[in-house]
Amino acid sequence: MTGRIAVWASVLLFWLLARDIAAQPGAPAAPTAPAPAAAPAPAPASPGATPAQGAMACPTPQQYGAVTVTRVSAYVPNSAGPPVREVSLRDGIVVTVNDLAPLLAREQCSPRQKRIVLFLDGRPLADIRPYPPSNPVANTLNFVLNRTETSRDVWTHLLGKPSFRPRDLAVSVGIEDEYPVASQQTIPMRVIPMGWFALWTSLFSLLAVTFIVLARRSDVLRDPGPPPGPGRRKPYSLARTQGAVWFGLILASYLFIGMITGDYATTITPTVLALMGISAGTVIGSSLIDRPPGTAQVADPSVSKGWLADILSDQYGVSFHRFQMASWTLVLGIVFIQQVYRELAMPDFDATLLGLMGISAGTYLGLKTTSEVK
């Protein structure tokens, strides 16, 4: 009897064990050591990266801080010639670092895909990317210096107030929106291209000399009307002189800015159009006042007393409205030249300053109507 009880107890025990095993499928039959915690997934590889680079972990601050620029050289794109000693706009720069791997890893693991950019004089050129992207074997990065609207402010700092002597620029690289890596390397940059300078200077000088000769021998800058007589000349016109001054300043500035920046398409600003419009309107108004349509010729026309006396005087002597208009033209012309030289852009005068010039021209025309009609 006891043996039967033992047999039935063993059967019941095995049945209970089998039920527990069926309730937990796939569970290990014997206890095992706990599995180690899963390691964090590596940063995704950037396009074109090798598997080893894609699996590269973000560099530590010590690793990234050890990256330094060891050499900088310049070259002319699409040219098989030797490297050049000076760099100019649209030339190329080769930046060599001691270890490119931490820089590439920092670029790959950045949260929003920040890129490697070039730093000149401590300022990032955010839209200039390495091309080709990189050479990890030689630890080099190639950049082509192109001026765009995005980097206009940086290039104004680099190229503004140009001189004929090359200026040394500190060169480095780094991640976008971060500090550049350590560098003691510089490269001389020639701001004024001598070839274009010779061409545009020769052309502008030819035009200026031609205009001066015409101004002395013809009536291009003189009041309208018949000549006063043999051996005598008509007086110079203040309105036409002002128009000639602004025409010369704008033409010279246009050539100067285009020569240095290569931008000939977006140089003209609304201020330039306003200045040309005010000058043209003053010339037209002055001509209509001096010589209204349908009037008879003046029996005793005015005679020139010299350029300065002519533009500042009427038949009663030196007049305030003429002196005022000439003074504002001189002052704004100097401001115009200074802004072009410093900013490499046509000035953008506000509406108040343009209104002041318009009031000066209007005062001149108004008083010319009442006090200078012959």
Radius of gyration: 39 Å
Low-confidence stretches: 20-55
Q: Helix amount, in percent?
A: 40-55%
Order of helices and strands: HHHEEHEEEHEEEHHHHEEHH
State the end-to-end distance. Answer: 153 Å
| Overall structural domain count | 2
Overall average pLDDT: 83
Main-sheet strand order equals 5-2-1-7
Structural class: alpha+beta
* Largest β sheet strand count, sense and barrel closure: 4 strands, mixed
Number of helical stretches of at least 4 residues:
11
Overview of this structure, please?
- With 374 residues, the chain is of the alpha+beta class.
- It folds into 2 domains: 51-189, no CATH class; 194-291 and 301-371, no CATH class.
- The chain contains 11 helices and 10 strands.
- It has a 4-stranded mixed β-sheet, with no helix packed on it.
- Strand 3 (116-120) and strand 4 (123-125) form a beta hairpin.
- The longest helix is centred in the middle third of the chain and has 24 residues, at 194-217.
- The protein is elongated and about 90 Å long.
Draw up the topology in text.
Blueprint lengths: L1 H22 L27 H4 L6 H5 L2 E8 L16 E6 L3 H8 L7 E5 L2 E3 L14 E5 L7 H8 L7 E9 L6 E2 L2 E4 L4 H24 L20 H24 L8 H21 L16 H6 E2 L2 E2 L1 H24 L7 H21 L3
Parallel strand pairs: 1-7
Antiparallel strand pairs: 1-2, 2-5, 3-4, 3-6, 6-8, 9-10
Helix pairs in contact: 6-7, 7-8, 7-10, 8-11, 10-11
Overview features:
2 domains; four-stranded mixed β-sheet; four-stranded antiparallel β-sheet; alpha+beta; 374 residues; 45% helix; 11 helices
